[in-house]
Amino acid sequence: MYTWFYITEPIWNNAFSAEKRKWRSIYVPKIIEWTLNNLELWEEIAFEECDEKWNIISFNWLKNFIKTEYNWIPTYIFDNHNHTFYFWSKAIHDWIIKPWIKLIHIDEHSDMREPDIDIILEKTKLNLQDIFDYTNNILNVGNYIKPAIKSEIIWEVIKIQWEASLLEIWGKIDRLWDYILNLDIDFFSPEMSYIDYNKAKKIVINLAKKAKLITIATSPFFINQTRAIKIIKDLLA
Question: Per-residue pLDDT tens for 167-186?
Fold first, then answer.
């Protein structure tokens, strides 16, 4: 992920509404080790889907993926959520986390679908190139968690998709340890505005401070990316 590239085949996130779209390439940015100041939009198409009238809707995404730190905790910021499978695997490879770790998944969606092609990765024999190819050619925004469980990257998933689960985790923070915080910024989309922003922010920040690894997706299809960047900068300031 240290150089940008295009996906031109009807695979991965480029496969949505395949039967209706003319094939267009989608852009995958490179990752840079920098600060939140480098979190900015780009004119390239990141995601395409058709609406209920089969009109093609295009979404732009980030100029770069960001590897940074929050409270000295390794933090990855990227657009489509399936990339997190690669970043989790790389964190194991780099001895940042141990295999079989807990996942706190804050997201408007569960992302627990099964991929069309399944692989089991031996936790002691991680081949990052194979994982990179699998992440970018097979997985999409809704099906990357199940392979992580089967590959023994994740052993338990705590899903936070609504206010009740958010308040429930607030009462458990002091007892939580050894986990990845996996945040989709669409949790702060207009559809979720019934949840008090400051309350959600406080809980997310407290969870982030205790995490072993933080992965954050900006989700171009589900939330305006200018808004997403503003929220990330507010959370991690």
Answer: 999 989 999 999 999 999 99
Q: Tens digit of pLDDT for each residue in 97-146?
A: 999 999 999 999 999 999 877 665 554 455 888 888 889 888 989 999 99
The distance in angstroms from the start CA to the end CA of the chain is 26
Edge-to-edge, what's the strand order for the sheet holding 65-70?
A: 31-33, 65-70, 73-78, 213-217, 179-184, 101-106, 154-160
Position 110, amino acid:
S
For the chain, domain boundaries: 65-235
Q: How far is CA 7 from CA 47, 108, 121, 225, in A?
A: 11, 26, 24, 21
The candidate with the shortest Cα–Cα distance to 13, out of 49, 41, 51, is 49
Q: Which residues of 126-159 are buried (b: 16+ CB within 10 A; e: fewer)?
A: beeeebbebbbebbbbbbbbbbbeebbbbeebbb
Alpha carbons within 13 angstroms on the beta-carbon side of residue 196 total 6
Four-CA torsion 136, 142, 157, 170, nearest 10 degrees: 110
